Automatic annotation (TrEMBL):
It comes from Lentzea rhizosphaerae. Residues 294-348 form the FHA domain. This is FHA domain-containing protein. Gene3D superfamilies: 2.60.200.20. The keyword Phosphoprotein applies.
Amino acid sequence: MTDAGYVPGTWVAVVGERTWLLLSVPPESDLVGRCWDLVRSDEPLDEVLAAIVHEGFRAVSGFALVRLDGTERRAVVRGETRLEVVDPSGAVDEISGAGVGTWVDRNLGEVARLRVTNGVRGPVLPVRSGVVLAGEIVVSLEGLPRPRPEPVPVPERVEHTVVRQEEPVELTVVRDEPPAPVTGVIQSFDWAPQVTTAIARPEPVQAAPPVTDTVLRTNVMSPNDTQMLHGRASGSQLVRAKRCPSGHLSSEYAVHCRVCEVPLPVQDAAMLAMPVLGALRLSNGDTITLDRNVALGRDPQGDPRSANLVQVGAESDTMISRTHVEVRLDGWDVLVRDLGSTNGTTISQPGCPPQDLAAHIPELIYPGTRVTLGDQVFFTFEVNG
């Protein structure tokens, strides 16, 4: 059995049989209805998370989402929300999203009790399922489906031992050397076996010219580069979109136009070609169109068929790593990720103080965000028509 309760507050709590959500949005937000439909339909956690992310972090500053069933036992926490998980032995594990740019995503084990809170205290009132204004959700779990153990493969019984032996392969190696001079001495016998040696000649290496300006290397790099940065070009996929009076396309969940920021008229979303999501304006004035992923560095590596490779600064500039940072397109969202650079990456969201990016953790960025590589080269994310 599941015994759920809540402490009255100002956030919205969505309570289901296996999914519990506490998020910071106004109760009249359309997101509340979408989340309730997904929770009561028992949809997977990723479906609920996608609805929240599409709303944008400007509209949702913090949330905690927990799902426990036989196949999925997982929690996602963002912002000042805190999750306390108590296992059957009484041990408490606390998960917090404070100080994290995106969110904390954790798999859970055995859970006897959980508590989701934004810091509000008070009497706990019972709730079976539905949507209430709350500052805390408390759930006691008993008899929920346990995690399904992974099946252990049974080795097949071996009746016979078979040894496979490769057929010998004869190799003919041509010796690359000048003929021996004729001296009157017998040089070889026709009936003797010929033993030769191959000498590999290295290909000449051409020095690359020094780079001092931004170089877009999409059509220069070889497709055999080791680090593959997969992306999609705008217009190559269809998405559900709304259109503003000026003709700009936005997400089906958007309330305002992403370009001109005017309120979107009431309409049904249509399947349309994905538009270009904006551009990166570099500190030297160059502009990179966001029609696919972008990798920036002093010598960026990747697949030029799916990502723009932008070489910035000089090759001798050690403040910038070879492949320093990646800008990735994820549906309607634009994310930036430090690729483990030596001197780090700093991000300045509009109206927020600069913060250092954690390596390999993507951060959602908004129009007007400035991203600095090392301490000298930067770019700004811009959106236009």
